[in-house]
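#struct-help
A.M.: can someone run this one for me? Single chain, 449 residues.
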Amino acid sequence: MALDALRATPLFADLPAEHLERLAAGATPMKLRPGEPLITEGDVADDIFVVVSGELEVTKLSGNAEIPLARVGPGAIQGELAALERGRRMASVRAATDAEVLKIPYQAVLEMLSAGPDAAVGMIRTVIGRLRSMESTLRQREKLAGLGTLAAGLAHELNNPAAAIRRSVEALDQAIQERNRLHPPHTLTLLRPSGKAGLDALGRSDAIDEIGALVGDTEAAAALVDAGWTVHELRDAFVGMDPAGAADAAAWLAATAKVEALIGEVRMAGDRISEIVGAVKSYAYLDQAPVQRIDLRKGLDDTLVILRQKLKGGIDVTRDYDPDLPEIEAWGSELNQVWTNLIDNAADAMDGKGEISIRAEKADNGGVRVSICDNGPGIPAEVAAKIFEPFFTTKPPGVGSGLGLHITHNVVVRHGGRIDVETAPGRTCFIVTLPPVLPKGAAAEASNP
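D.P.: on it. Structure tokens below:
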């Protein structure tokens, strides 16, 4: 059975008979029930598998979800990518139906490859095809996951000012009704405080005590102080009033101050929503040409607005932008994805607490250089050498696809630029250098996809 199964596999079909027999002799047959695992993502690889009968499902973890990559049947090979590298499994494989497979040890694979160039070329062709298929699927998943993360953060950011508007409007309605029940002298309705609120905590407390003694109501006194009234202005306003009239006048002024404060809160919340929506529109370059002259400072600031929810928990961000930074020709939305990946990775590296510094300056080639640095633990030398490789990740299965920095690198290269990493314990910097114009033919590619 093993010999026939191997001969039916395209990869092994052209092997000389003696090598095929040797490979079959070292193979171990296995039977799987539906749902039974064959390969688990993250495990150390040591064997490859050939499907004899039945079907297997290939999946990869992304967060808490398993993303289907492929469904394979008789003649398919599984596990060859990680086995050849002697690394860890990049995906999981389980039986979709009753299935039979052959387990071929790593040493037997090496002997097969030494049989001649045809076997080696066949294996390389299989590996490249598998990598392309996996990368294509995960690229789309990475984009959707990135959009989901941004959407979740934006929903939280927009919910805060929206909730503030709802609370303020409810309180405003009540405050207006309370004020309308009061009937102050006409001259009082024209008065406004000459100063602005801005006292420190101790000064505010003293002012509340002083005005409270005048109007007989601590809550009203606090509203008047916050609106900028002083005790001298109130005494002047109450000239000629008896104590009851002065109390009513103070209540009306306090109610007016409360109404104006609530209107200010609504205005601030509305401005906050407008800022977020404007940043999203600018970040995605909605209604704009894909290629144009852009100011990277705007893209960096928009990205920080988009990621504010993730950064505000304990990360300080400092910005140092060259005031004479030149505009460059670029795909703006793609570069914003670069900044998103780098800043998001920096936040993850520091476990949500630390400092990120962003510097944008003119480069020697007339373009720009952007440095994004963090004070996290740094990247070991053996890891730094591989961080731009596809599927390479130090995160556990399901947390990282290993494509974020690979995509970032490809975007920068597509712009004719380069990305470098400088790292040491306590500091990591990613340095992106971009030319003033896109490589020849790139703009035409964008307009004629």
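A.M.: thanks! The radius of gyration is 33 Å.
D.P.: also worth noting: Residues 2-115 form a domain with the Jelly Rolls fold (CATH 2.60.120.10).
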